[in-house]
Fold this sequence. Notes:
Layout: E1 13-15, H1 17-27, H2 29-32, E2 42-47, E3 53-55, H3 57-80, H4 84-89, E4 93-100, E5 106-113, H5 120-125, H6 143-154, E6 158-163, E7 169-176, H7 180-183, H8 194-198
Helix pairs in contact: 1-3, 3-6
Amino acid sequence: LRTFSRADKEHKIPFDVREGLNSTLLILKHRLKANNIRPDIQVVKAFEEIPSIECFAGQLNQVFMNLLANAIDALDERSQAQSFDDLEAKPNVITVRTHLGSDQHHVVIQIQDNGGGMDETVQQKIFDHLFTTKDVGKGTGLGLAIAQQIVVEKHHGSIDVKSTLGLGATFTITLPIQSPTTSSPSIVSALPPLSSQLA
């Protein structure tokens, strides 16, 4: 839990996103278990070797929590329209992938479910502030808008969704390994050491 909620509002730190994904799945473990309408939700981890990235780890964990919780919601909704036997034959699955981007400068995270999916109209609005497909009282319409803000504005990355109605959805997050602020020369680094300034 310490890893999940670490206070990192001031500075970006090196972080292995696989650690964050594992922590999030652990917190959501109770929601993945079988209940009276469906068997266990299966989780497939396809984690390739990736470097740590410079980021606000707690904020990224918030993004992972939102995407994984939404995937579980989609699978719970799918389960209501199918029998327990059907779901055992074609189980609910969440697949989580990580790999190095083709440019070697980015890490890619994908969270995929085989839930009900969404049409083109919903996909175009999915990151809009206050937009939700959930019933009144169940969704605020803030989660994905905040997730996009964290990924794009705070981490100079990208987040997008691909989905086919009836065939599930895949969210893809791309994040730079090195923060743009540290990869470019800093004005501060051109100054003499602090001790010589004080002399």
